[in-house]
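Milestone M4 deliverable, item 7.
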Amino acid sequence: MVATTSLAGRLLVATPGLEDPNFRRTVVLVLRHDDDGALGVVLNRPLAVSTGEVLPAWESAVSPPDALFQGGPVGLDGALGVVTLTPSADGPIVDRLVGPFGLVDLDADPDDGLPGITGVRVFVGHSGWEAGQLEGEIAVGGWYVLPAEPGDLVDPEPGTLWRRVLRRQGGALAIVSTFPEDPSLN
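Output delivered:
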């Protein structure tokens, strides 16, 4: 299956029926999507590890909460620094990806300059899909594909992001946002 329209810069919001424990009730920011597959990071899975414990130089640069985030089940031995950028942001340690989102070099010293960076989040691992895999998951109703806002990446209350992203869509998706965590308890 060929990716006809890139989803880079969009959100994948897990539908209530998505039972995979890696993605249940997640909000994924798609960073890359092309004919070879897709790559993104889960925005609402903070870990109980502060950034300073692993990357002390970046502790004061990250957006609250000061935690590493589990970006997904792939590449758990690596980290990605994902940033929000102003339109004019440019610098040697930043690589703009799509819209206001980019990557920052975590081996660099953040004191070397973060001009135009408005938010930083560090992810352990990422989410990845082979060619056609994401399109198949969307086709069977596993994901809602929704617009991203720059603040989604660095939301200070990631635990409620799934509900709030759905709620701001209005209509039927706002109703989905009230879907109980465990419907058997209703």
